[in-house]
Amino acid sequence: DQQVKQNSPSLSVQEGRISILNCDYTNSMFDYFLWYKKYPAEGPTFLISISSIKDKNEDGRFTVFLNKSAKHLSLHIVPSQPGDSAVYFCAAINRGSTLGRLYFGRGTQLTVWP
Amino acid sequence: GAGVSQSPRYKVAKRGQDVALRCDPISGHVSLFWYQQALGQGPEFLTYFQNEAQLDKSGLPSDRFFAERPEGSVSTLKIQRTQQEDSAVYLCASSTLQGGYQPQHFGDGTRLSIL
Known about the structure:
The complex is a heterodimer.
Chain A: E1 4-5, E2 10-14, E3 19-25, E4 32-38, E5 45-51, E6 56-59, E7 62-67, E8 72-77, E9 86-93, E10 103-104, E11 108-113
Parallel strand pairs in A: 2-11
Antiparallel strand pairs in A: 1-3, 3-8, 4-5, 4-9, 6-7, 7-8, 9-10, 9-11
Chain B: E1 5-7, E2 10-13, E3 19-24, E4 31-37, E5 44-50, E6 53-56, E7 65-68, E8 75-79, E9 88-95, E10 105-106, E11 110-114
């Protein structure tokens, strides 16, 4: 049973435009969310996170928004750059009971074209 | 090096053989996780260590899978009598605390192919 869902397997965006990657979750006990970026043949790299007590976290070109009532989060990349082309994974934690175990979505392949 | 190191990067084995995958976490990291990533899927949790103690092994798919971290640093994931469905990328991650508030740092994985 997939508790974290990324329903768009791919997204294609022109350089300079905004990329919006979406993620939904079903477990209301999740209280911390992370985005990881993955290049081919490399491990996932941490990008940005957000606690459930916040609804927005920003780091440079990357902003994550959390809507707890809808159990939905999104990652905005502005402006998008060709080097952002990668697979983006949404992940969630129930900090209270799972010792930091991450639950991942299936990922979204972002392609940024010039 | 400064990151999580995994070896080998690629492993090919015949069905029925045993394999051992190694993870060298970031120095000083208390927590160590193993994940399995099948083609086209996100990583799936296998097991978790805090120092040398294996606190959660609920994600191990069968008793053919065994993990250890005897001295609280390097960890080994062993798969006995491999099956074709074991083919996947095996990722190791480490973090400074128990993991809940600190992002996990991943190695580049071992790609296991069972023929």
